[in-house]
Amino acid sequence: MPKARPLRFISWNVNGIRAVMNKGFGDFVASAAPDVLCLQETRATPEQAEALPLPAGFHRFWNNAEKAGYSGTGVLTRVEPLAVTRGIGVAEHDREGRVLTLEFADYFLVNCYTPNSQRELTRLDYRQAWDRAFLAYLKKLEKKKPVMFCGDINVAHTELDLARPKDNVRNHGFTIEERSGFSAIIDAGFVDTFREFEKGNGHYSWWSQMGGARARNIGWRIDYWVISAALRPRLKKAWIMPEVKGSDHCPVAMELA
After folding, report:
1. What is the pTM of this model?
2. pLDDT at position 169 over 80
3. β-bridge partners, 237
4. Dihedral sign (CA 111, 19, 78, 13)
5. What are the distances in angstroms from CA 162 to CA 6, 50, 241?
6. Given this model, what pLDDT does residue 2 score?
7. Which is catalytic among the residues 107, 113, 137, 224?
């Protein structure tokens, strides 16, 4: 019997699904061959997304924000899920289409677009409340079966995760509060898959669109695949795909046996 290939999971903040369709999205999906593709910042209603020439062979699910053209998440999956949940069940956090959960036979998959605390940290208090509520949601799911989550988590966890840590100490995405929020997830028993394979710096998933930051690799790693410790024995690979253009973020990926 030939050995079954690992399942490939890809996450990508596309910065507008309608925009990325004109930037090689279909070719990317065909060449990357994901079993599950999680999208953030889709900025579209389900009707708008379904009107696009989406890749064939996938079940498709969407969660859009109440505000038009803002936020939003989507999942394309070759395997049909047992159930799909939109949001985390907390009204104040579920208006922006930021979480989409698919239940499969042996795990939950949670696609997340974490709120940005904003340039002047005007949303930092809200972001901290979100982090606590999101972790509680993950742990509630984990009581039933292991969990994996992915997405634009809008934080560089350590100094290794951005090119210029000392310049960004109190900047949004690198505050102590946001970093502590991610640390709480790791301390609760979850695994940052990329760091299981790569301990060094220089590996980023988002670059400012100003000043040639991407060409110079002046970036941040703010997109993740994180898994329950129970799934760690199945983890075969985790990587970043900086060569893929079309958004200010690049895709991040992992494979599970």
Report:
1. 0.97
2. yes
3. 255
4. negative
5. 30, 35, 16
6. 63
7. 113
Euclidean distance between the first and final Cα of the chain, in Å? 16
Query: Which residues sit opposite 62 in a β-bridge?
Result: 74
For strand 108-113 and strand 147-152, is the pairing parallel, antiparallel, or unpaired?
A: parallel
**Given this model, what pLDDT does residue 118 score?**
94
Active site residue 113: yes
Give the phi and the psi of residue 126 in degrees, each rounded to 5.
-65, -40
Taking the C-alpha atoms of residue 26 and residue 36, their distance in angstroms, rounded to an integer, is: 14
Could you tell me the domains of the chain?
Answer: 7-256 (3.60.10.10)
Catalytic residue among 131, 152, 161, 192: 152
Alpha-carbon span 216 to 135, nearest angstrom: 35
Q: Which residues pair with 75 in a beta bridge?
A: 38, 61
Q: Is the pLDDT of residue 51 over 90?
A: yes
* Mean pLDDT (whole number) for 191-213: 97
Token couple for 204: 């980023």
3-state SS track over 191-242:
EEHHHHCCCCCCCCCEECCCCCCCCCCCEECCEEEEEEHHHHHHEEEEEECC
Q: Provide the β-strand partners of residue 111.
A: 100, 150
The residue behind tokens 């999208």 is: 39
pLDDT at 201: 97
- Whether 70 is a known active-site residue: answer no
